[in-house]
Amino acid sequence: MKLGFLYFATMIKRLIPLLFVLAACSSEKTPFCKCMEAGDEFSAYSADVLNQPEIDEETETKMNELKAKEKELCKDYETMGGAEMLELREDCTEMNAKDEALQIEEK
Prior knowledge:
mainly alpha
């Protein structure tokens, strides 16, 4: 019983620093990931707006702000090729999956 506890304690001591390093690295969003998130946010909001019978000034203002944010964050990627963009998108998806896994482990 004591041997099992010592093994467990040793593993925890080794895993905690590794988890901190992984969390620090994975929480850093790349500029492309930020661009992608802004685009997804704008698209989702636009889809909601299209379902509304009327668009008020507040909704239009928010939509313009989201569009401007996306344009600013994505300006460096406007001329990027499709294959390269898909590769960067996959990297962001993997990064988000790792972030979610770390958050689950922390709970």
